[in-house]
Amino acid sequence: MPFDTTWPPLDADTAERERAGDVAVALWLLLVAAMIVVMVALGGATRLTGSGLSIMEWRPLTGWLPPLSEAEWQRLFALYRTIPQYIELNRGMDLAGFKQIFWLEYLHRLWGKLIGVVFAAGAIALAATGRLRRSLWPRIGLLFGLGALQGALGWFMVASGFFAHRTAVSPYRLTMHLGLAFVIFAAVLWTALDLLAKRAVRPAPPRAAKRALHAAGGLALATMLAGGFVAGLRAGFSYNTFPLMDGRLIPAGYGDLTPWIMNWFENVAAVQFNHRLLATATLVAAAVALALAWRAGPPWRGPVALFAGAIAVQYALGVVTLLAVVPVSLGTLHQTVAVLVLGAFVIAAHRMRQGVA
After folding, report:
1. ∠92-93-95 over CA atoms, to 5°?
2. 237 vs 326: CA distance, rounded Å
3. Lowest mean pLDDT among 76-85, 193-202, 260-269
4. What residue spans of 49-136 are helical by DSSP H?
5. Radius of gyration of the chain (CA)
6. Are the beta carbons of 44 and 331 closer than 8 angstroms?
7. What distance in Å separates the CA atoms of residue 325 and residue 318, rounded to the nearest whole number?
8. Which one in 111, 126, 198, 323 has a CA-CA gap of 20 to 30 Å to 315?
9. pTM of the predicted protein model
10. What's the pLDDT tens digit per position in 251-278?
11. Is residue 317 helix, strand or coil?
């Protein structure tokens, strides 16, 4: 909802000061959103390199500094050597090899802490200088709470990789962690767009185009969450052909698990097929939304075209990543572009609101 609800209307000087404050808050939130994009990229690289289990301690308020002594390095390495990932996959790794996977996970966690500092410090500074509207305080508090929950959920995900039967984290917990990152990013970006929007009377957006856009956005989010299970099961390293999967449209063994619904979450063939199917449906829906927006006129074309273009790029990138058998560079880029697709949808959906220019 717009924040400009003051009645009677403010005088010009007061309105200008509030507008300047809104812009300052919006720029701070856009910085946080950009940091979240980097965080998602780091998370993808951490997962693809198997680095996420290298740090077996959770120190959300401390842990800013890396190991500073040989004894501390040896202590952390000894902890890592107790988990199944080392025993089954990395047995014989030396300290130098451990350091390689440690640094990426350390950077991932450090960046998360920095996001928290930038968010908290920015909120306090903006509130203290009167630029953060009181009406926004509950929303900012909620966003901070979601960020704290994301940190705890990250550790909950990592801890699943310490169980005796696992060499990686739980796909369910990984998808929850990724999904909450998307929610936080979308909420931060939407709030920034609210603050930057000009209050203007404008005709209602075309209903058909708006519905098509929302349908495409919902499908895009479903595709992203399905991608979390693809990542968690490492399903992208199988069936590396397109559009068929081992010469079949629907892969053999799609429904092998019982109960049947578990195939959607734990069957490699089914998980990858569903991700492909949802991605294709998203591409079609985005094309329909673009066609309807294009017919509706200039106010709606640009944002919907940005979203549809991002979908097309992500679809092509997904195919290339699959055919290349998921190299770290392409896999990380594919996950990063996913959050950019979400950002393009948020921009388009915000533009489709009546009365916001």
Report:
1. 130
2. 7
3. 193-202
4. 70-80, 84, 95-128
5. 23
6. yes
7. 11
8. 111
9. 0.93
10. 999 999 999 999 999 999 999 999 999 9
11. helix
